[in-house]
Amino acid sequence: MKKEFIVSKIDTSQDGSPYVYVVLTDTRGNFTPTRRQQGFPENPFGVASIPITSLEDLKNLPKKISDALEGAFGGSSRNNVSPESTTFKMNTREYEELGIKIGDKITLEIKISTNDIGA
Questions:
Q1: Under a CB-based contact definition with an 8 Å cutoff, are residues 6 and 108 in contact?
Q2: Helix locations, 13-100, DSSP H
Q3: CA distances from 102 to 8, 36, 49, 113 (A)
């Protein structure tokens, strides 16, 4: 089986180990809906408007602003990987040999081996 992916994110290991995490996104599933398709209002002056209809809304304004900003930027920066993505963990040497970078289109091929591996 062969499948095409686009390298969407590259992260180093946070614990200092010599590993690199490469996130792959399916080329067929790389559709990002527009704000209108997501149901958000189009706003030429910023991310979105925050309606204030009562005094209670004014009291909760900092939280509403925080929630609006978090939603606009896709949540926390560490968790913005799509659930349909594939993540590979490879050592630094393998990563450097491949020379891949964000935006590269790669093909992943999976074959079933007929060789017996001693367990």
A1: no
A2: 55-59, 61-72, 92-98
A3: 5, 27, 33, 30
Cβ within 8 Å of residue 52, ≥6 positions away:
58, 61
Task: Give CB contacts under 8 A, 24+ apart, made by 50-59.
Answer: none
33-52 pLDDT per residue, tens? 555 555 555 555 555 567 77
Say how far apart CA 92 and CA 95 lie, in whole Å. Answer: 5
Residue type, 119: A
Contact yes or no for 52/63 (Cβ under 8 A): no
Query: Minimal CA–CA distance to 100: which of 13, 20, 3, 2?
Result: 20
Using only C-alpha atoms, the chain has a radius of gyration, in whole angstroms, of 21
Instruction: Specify the pTM.
Output: 0.52
